[in-house]
Amino acid sequence: MIRVNNLKKSFGEGDKRIIVLEDFNSHMERGQITSIIGGSGSGKSTVLKHLIGAYRPDSGEIWIDGEEVTQLRGAAINNVRKKFGIMFQSGALFNSLTVEDNVALPMREHTNLNESTILIMVKMKLEMVGLRGAEHLKPAQLSGGMVKRIALARAIALDPKIVFYDEPSAGLDPISIGVIDKLIIDLSKKMGITSVVVTHEIPSAMRISDKIIMLFKGKIIAEGTPDEIRNSDDPRVTQFIEGSPDGPIPFSKSLTDYGEELKEMSRV
Amino acid sequence: MVRSFFGFIGRRGFEFTGVFEDFFKEISGLYNLTRATLYCTFIEPLRGKPIKWRPVWTQMEEVGVKSTTIVFLVSFLIGVILAFQSAHQLSRLGALEFVGALVGVAILRELGPLMTALVMAGRVGAAFTAEMGTMKVSDEILALEIMALNPVKFLITPRFIALLIMLPCLTIMADLMGILGGFLIGTTTLGIDPVTYINNSLDAMVIKDVVTGLVKSAVFAVIIVMVGSYMAFIIEGGAEMVGQNTRTAVVVSMILVIIADLVFTSLFFFVT
Predict the structure, then answer these.
(1) What CA–CA distance (Å, rounded) separates A25 from A57?
(2) What are the chain B neighbours of A92 within 8 Å (beta carbons)?
(3) Can you tell me the mean pLDDT for A54-59?
(4) Terminus of chain B with fewer CB atoms < 10 Å: N or C?
(5) Is there a contact between B72 and B174 (Cβ–Cβ < 8 Å)?
(6) Among B139, B145, B152, B154, which would you mutate to test the A interface (most chain A Cβ atoms within 10 Å of its Cβ)?
(7) What is the pLDDT of residues A127-151, one digit of tens each?
(8) Rounded Cα distance, A195 and A28, in Å
(9) What is the complex's ipTM, to 2 decimals?
(10) Is the residue at B22 inside a domain?
(11) Are the CB atoms for A161 and A1 separated by under 8 Å?
């Protein structure tokens, strides 16, 4: 369904050039849930932004549903985009519209369905995420978990083949995380939706994924089923899934030596 | 020595090029956005993608109907002030009864369109930048793009049509209110005979004055919408940038409105 070949991306120019993604290769199969995990700054959001066409790679190919998408523009990229839905980390619901209008928006714009059919379909989507009855609320009146569920309802409004989830469970309580996890599993198993989840919630990723890709500093360091990841003997992977502060992945992001820097400051 | 001098010149030259480069980048960005907006507003409906009118009505209410109070107030007071100011000078020439003519022509040709545009740049242009800028910051504009919806068509076109229609309408109302303000002061405080006042005014004002005023206000509408939207679309970062760009949008659109006013006034002066 989605195949990524040798994706490379760097930001900045000259000596400030930072490589954020190096040789990312992956294959996400139809109806399966692939999770991309990694610490902050590991490049997992960059992968997602490439997949949805928000960034252009320096080199590499992305095939979505048999089409190479990195070079597409205008109407061609829009045709690809109609095949997928995305649930943003912040939800990115339109604050000026009600929940009903938010979910109805893709249908109103991309289909010729009449208004009453659209309203029925909106109700169905809201029932799927368990929020039927919230139609006339504004996003500002919803809690964080509800915003994400509405965002999911909007993402699946056009019955997409692929759904991307950006941090679906970040900042939610355990029960909401469980609800979102169940929704993601249901969607991919019952409707055959290919799901790509970018997350750093390890328990959630372990529960839902068919395949987990772990990124570290822009490179894939582990790839496999949840069990394979759990039993991995790479110390970086074990440190990440156990969440231990000591290990090969440093806590501090600073590049200079702490003692030297303090000495430098006292000299002035 | 010589070398370092040329090195200095070269560096300064390079810095200047940087400034010019930034300037032209902004200009070309604004131009491209305007072109995209014109395309979405006027060409796409002809190619079978009709404009949705509901958001246009909402925006017309927002930018037009709700601006009437402030526009009325400002233009009425401008009319009053203008009558007072000109009365003093004209009475020294013994031409007090021509206050009406002066107020009428000044309002119709210049102050009506200009003051309305400046008030709207502050009221509406700022609102455009703040609203769309917040959408940009909270990923809503990215969400539109990913949903294969054109943010230009979705966000700018309704505002563009609304202001393009409402600004000339507001200008006409501002003209009337300004003339009314002058009339009230002229016939009461200044003691000019109402019939003489009206006759003198009508003699001085021609329909061309109204038309040139309306042409100008349509141009001002384009400037206010495009600067406001462009400043919103280039926002990267957070709330701080929204505030900064809102301020820049108001300042830039006011300056551009004045410049456009100058260009069109001199154009009408020489051509007609």
Answers:
(1) 13
(2) 138-140, 142-143
(3) 86
(4) N
(5) yes
(6) B139
(7) 988 888 888 999 999 988 889 889 9
(8) 8
(9) 0.82
(10) no
(11) yes
Q: Give the range of the structural domain holding residue B237, as residue numbers without chain letter.
A: 67-271
Q: Which residue has the higher pLDDT, A35 or A66?
A: A35
Q: Is residue B264 part of a domain?
A: yes
Ordered mean pLDDT values, 10 residues apiece, chain B (272 residues): 56 68 88 92 86 90 93 95 91 88 91 94 94 91 88 93 95 95 92 90 89 93 96 89 93 95 90 74
Q: Determine the 3-state secondary structure of B78 from DSSP.
A: helix
pLDDT digits (tens, 9 = 90+) for B81-111: 999 999 988 888 888 888 999 999 999 989 9
CATH of A1-82+203-247, one of 3.90.320.10, 3.30.1020.10, 3.40.50.300, 2.30.30.240: 3.40.50.300
In a domain, B149, yes or no: yes
Q: Cβ(B142)–Cβ(A54) under 8 Å?
A: yes
In a domain, B37, yes or no: no
In whole angstroms, give the CA distance from residue B183 to residue B200: 11
Judged by a CB distance cut-off of 8 A, whether residue B202 touches chain A is: no
Residue type, B176: L
**Three-state secondary structure readout of B180-220:** HHHHHHHHCCCCCCHHHHHHHHHHHCCHHHHHHHHHHHHHH
Chain A residue with the nearest C-alpha to that of B136: A92
Torsion of CA B58, B63, B68, B73, to 10 degrees: 160
Instruction: Tell me the C-alpha distance between A20 and A44, whole Å.
Output: 9
